[in-house]
Amino acid sequence: MKLKTEKKKVVHLDPEGWARKVRLRKRAALMTVIVLAAAAAVYFLLSRCIIPASRYASAESALRRGEIAEAIAGFTSAGSWRGGLSRAAEIAFSEQGDPSIRRRLSEAEHGSIVEFGHYEQDGETADGAEPISWVVLDKRDGQLLLLSEKVLDAVPYNETECDITWAECSLRRWVNGEFLSAAFTGEERLLIITKKHLNENNSVSGAKGGASTVDTVFIPSLEDLLSAARLKRGFSIYDLSAAPTVYARSRGLEGSPYGGSSCWWTRTPGSGQSTVMYADMGGSLLHSSRPDRTNYGVRPMIWVFAGDAG
Q1: Do the beta carbons of residue 106 and residue 305 sit within 8 Å?
Q2: In the structure, how many helices (H) and strands (E) does the chain have?
Q3: pLDDT by residue (tens digit) across 224-240?
C-alpha cells in the first residue's frame, strides 16, 4: 500500500506535465483575448465606419434620384459619419414651405411648448384643423423629443381584450397610419425621425414589453416618462394630468369634471399581459386597464430635427 501511494504522488506532481498544462492554458487564454479583440475591432469597423459609410453612399444616390424621403432616412441612419444627421436635417428644412418651422424648432428648449403639425381639436371641422402644441421632453444631438400637450383623441390601445404588447397593438398602427397622415403634411413628415424603440417589461408585475419596434410616431413608455422627469425641466412623474381637446371628448374620451383632465395610454404593459399602464385623471400612473377601452386617450410622441442640428 505504501509503494502504491508514493507512485501516485510522483505521477500527480509531474513537473513537466504540469508545466505543459500551464502553457496550454496560457495559450488558450491568449487566443481567447486575440479572438475577442479581433471581434471587437470588426464590430467597431462595421458599426462606426463600414455600415455608416454604406448608408451615407446610398443616401447620396437616393438624393441624386430625387428620392428626398429615402435620402433623409439614409443620412439619418449614417449618424455622425461625415455629418449625416446634419445633412439630413438641412435637406428636411430646405423642403419646408413654411420658414417659421425652423425658427420654432431651433428656439425650443426642455420644458417649452412648440407648435408643429395640425389636428382637429375644437370640434368645428368646418374651420380646419388646429395647430398641435407639444411639450419638449428632450433636446440633444440636433433632435427634439416631443409629447403632445393635450390628449388629442380617444382610441383604444387594442381593438380587442387579449394578451398584447406595443409591437402588436392596433394603437401603434393608428398613430403611424391615420394620425400621421392627418396631423402632418408631406413636408412636415420629412422632419420627423423614425427611430428604434425599446419596449421595457413592467418592472413591478414582470409583464413583457415585447419586441423592439421602429416607429415614426409612438406613445410614451414608463421609462420615457422617468427619463423626462430626471431632466427636471418642469416635467413631473407625479403629475401627468393632461387636458382633453373638445374633439377628443366628442369622440368618447372621458374627462374629469373637476380638473378637466383625462386618462391616457402608455405603451408599458400593466399588472398582467392583457392590461396596460395608463395615466389617470389625477395624473397618476396606474397599472391595470384593459386595452380595449374606448374612453381613454392618446398623447402621441415624435422625434423631430431641431432647427440648429449643426
Answers
A1: no
A2: 11, 11
A3: 999 998 887 677 888 89
CB of 142 closer than 8 Å to CB of 309: yes
Grid cell for residue 3: 509503494
pLDDT tens, position by position, 9-42: 545 556 777 777 778 788 877 777 776 766 665 5
Distance from C-alpha of 235 to C-alpha of 241, rounded to nearest angstrom: 11
The alpha carbon of residue 247 and the mean position of all alpha carbons in its chain are separated, in whole angstroms, by: 27
Nearest to 59 by CA among 41, 86, 99: 86
Q: What stretches of the chain adopt beta strand conformation (E)?
A: 113-119, 130-140, 143-148, 153-154, 195-197, 213-215, 264-269, 276-279, 285-289, 297-298, 301-305
The phi, psi pair for 12, rounded to 5°, reads: -65, -30
**Cα separation values, 179 from 29, 150, 291, Å:** 56, 15, 19
Q: What angle do the packed helices 84-94 and 51-64 form, to 10 degrees?
A: 20
Burial class for 106, CB neighbours closer than 10 Å (0-12, 13-18, 19+): middle
Question: What is the mean pLDDT of the segment spanning 113-128?
Answer: 96
Alpha carbon 218 to its chain's center = 7
Return the pLDDT at 50: 80
pTM recorded for the entire structure: 0.84
Count other Cβ atoms within 10 Å, centred on residue 108.
Answer: 23
Whether the pLDDT of residue 70 is over 60: the answer is yes
- Cα three-residue angle 279-107-99, rounded to 5 degrees: 110
How far is residue 273's CA from residue 270's CA, in Å, rounded to a whole number?
Answer: 7
Contact 75, 54 (CB under 8 A): no
In sequence order, what are the residues at sequence separation of 6 or more whose Cβ sits closer than 8 angstroms to the Cβ of residue 150? 121, 133, 242, 243, 244, 245, 248, 299
- pLDDT band for 309, please (50, 70, 90 cuts): very low
